[in-house]
Amino acid sequence: MNLSHKLLTLLLMIMTGCSNAPVTQAVAIPTKGGITFKNTVVSLTFDDGDADNYAARSILADNNLRATFYIVSGFTNTAGYMTSDQLRGLYNDGNEIGGHTLSHTKLTKENDDNLIKREICLDRSNLMAYGFEVTSFAYPYGYYDERAKQTVHDCGYNNARVVSGGLNTIPPNDAYTLPALPYIVSDTKFAKMTRYVKDVENEGGGWAIFIFHHVCDGCDKFAVDLETFTKFTNWLGTQQANNGLIIKTIDEVVGGEVKPAVAP
């Protein structure tokens, strides 16, 4: 045993007060700017089923994250939108597939009750025919009224998301008007996205729903570039693994049985 080792051993004996006492490990000091999450749940949602959303698959999987993808089934397998096989890949990874109407219709602008029912019910039936358990819905453009809410319920959905309003409680006050954070758009920076999450915890906690559309570099106003999305997702994965942040799909938060498809 060299001199430095002997001195270290003597010092530990003095600190513990007994040569036979166990030596406790030092407690890690959080890095500057770190935060421990105790009451915050985050859900990542993607609207429309755009083809570029598929780029998120591997990034989510690499960080052990799952998201909710709201799909316009009438656009599936057409140019610019994901294929049914791509949706199945996302679903098999544990991501949720939700409904977003048959043709991205503004439900409050339609006067025909049968058309509204077809848009909502047939969309869910189409997605279930691919083998997906479909329980969550998002109103296109966030447009809804009491008639739309009731039809979403009658078509077998357990919840529906709007496009504004801020935070949710768990359980939500109204599962058919789930509020969300402001759209993530092309000029939304990484720092702002992380601040959204930190502010939730600092203000006492809650359920924060993010809304993404395109995942691409400069292709659309409602887009997040791949670098920013990757950076944010990596950050979420780290917070989930080390600091107590909870990331869940919409269905995982709201729950409820999977109801049978309803004919339009």
Mean pLDDT: 89
Please provide the ordered H/E string of secondary-structure elements.
HEHEHEHEHEEHEEEHEH
Helix content: 25-40%
**Could you give a short account of the major beta sheet?**
5 strands, parallel
Strand content: 15-25%
Question: CATH first level: which class?
Answer: Alpha Beta
Structural class: alpha/beta
Q: What is the architecture at the second tier of CATH?
A: Alpha-Beta Barrel
* Total beta-strand segments: 10
Radius of gyration: 23 Å
Termini separation (Å)?
82 Å
From the 3D structure, determine the CATH topology: TIM Barrel
Shape: globular
Runs in which pLDDT lies below 50 for 5 or more consecutive residues are: 1-33
Based on the model shown, name its key terms.
single chain; 264 residues; alpha/beta; TIM Barrel; five-stranded parallel beta sheet; 34% helix; 16% strand
SSE blueprint:
Elements lengths: L2 H14 L23 E9 L7 H7 L5 E4 L12 H9 L3 E4 L13 H17 L6 E3 L7 H9 L4 E7 L12 E3 L9 H13 L3 E7 L1 E2 L7 E2 L1 H17 L3 E2 L2 H5 L10
Parallel strand pairs: 1-2, 1-7, 1-10, 2-3, 4-5, 5-6, 8-9
Helix pairs in contact: 2-7, 4-5
What does this structure look like?
It is globular, with a radius of gyration of 23 Å. Strands 1, 2, 3, 7 and 10 form a five-stranded parallel β-sheet that branches. Helices cover 34% and strands 16% of the residues. It is α/β, with parallel strands linked by helices and 264 residues long. The chain has one domain (41-254): Glycoside hydrolase/deacetylase (TIM Barrel, Alpha-Beta Barrel). It has helices spanning 3-16, 56-62, 84-92, 113-129, 146-154, 190-202, 226-242, 250-254, and strands spanning 40-48, 68-71, 96-99, 136-138, 159-165, 178-180, 206-212, 214-215, 223-224, 246-247. Helix 2 (56-62) packs parallel to helix 7 (226-242) and helix 4 runs parallel beside helix 5.
